[in-house]
Amino acid sequence: MERTLTGRTALVTGSTSGIGLGIARMFAEAGAKVMLNGLGRPEDIAAARREVGAAMGGGEAPYSDHDLSKPEAVRAMVAAAEKALGQVDILVNNAGIQFTAPVEDFPDEKWDQILAINLSSNFHAIKAVLPGMKARGWGRIINISSAHGLTASPFKVAYIAAKHGVVGLTRTVALEVARTGVTCNAICPGFTRTPLAERQVVAAAQERGISEEEALTEVVLAKQPSKRWVEVEEVARMALYVCGPDTGSLNGAALSIDGGWTAA
User: Fold this and answer.
1) Which residue among the candidates 159, 191, 229, 261 is catalytic per the annotation?
2) Active site residue 63
């Protein structure tokens, strides 16, 4: 891989598994120093740190376990990243959670938690990294939204409200930084092959008494015209491109990678 990020540093939230880990690994392979953040089993986190650390040349990648539902913890995470990496050139806001229920049954505490982690944490992290990025005249902010940041589905009111908010946040920040050397963009994946998503296929198959292949194409990927997963590596490559040397005019975009879902 071409080492287009040599000399750059990156903080990737929600990067102990799935899309976040894929982005962190690819950034490290491209030459960046990367700090991980997220939750999970200690052995899985240790494996992720070793994996990304190996891509950086050895050892373990630095890691933060700060609770992104709390503004002060988000600020502390950024401070820890600046201490570990020297500075934060690239911020990827990827952390997120999900819960499904009809609006009238949706628990208030779940609404608050999802908005805090999926949207407000992005704001607090951006606010914390921007002064340094502006002072250096270069920075890349990538917010991982979703196809659900551009369209809606039932029973996901908090997630969809948050992901729509992420797109709006992205566009506003992009306008404010347009003459600073900093850019802010959103990536909007469709259903992506992660361990969590694959478990949803198994559950849907068991619940409906159908094969896993049928559950994948007819249930989980019902709205995705390609009828195949978006791969983590596809999302990571898009994130890497956004941070590349010739993307200074790519700013304020909501970049769909969803197998045609939002084209309909």
Assistant:
1) 159
2) no
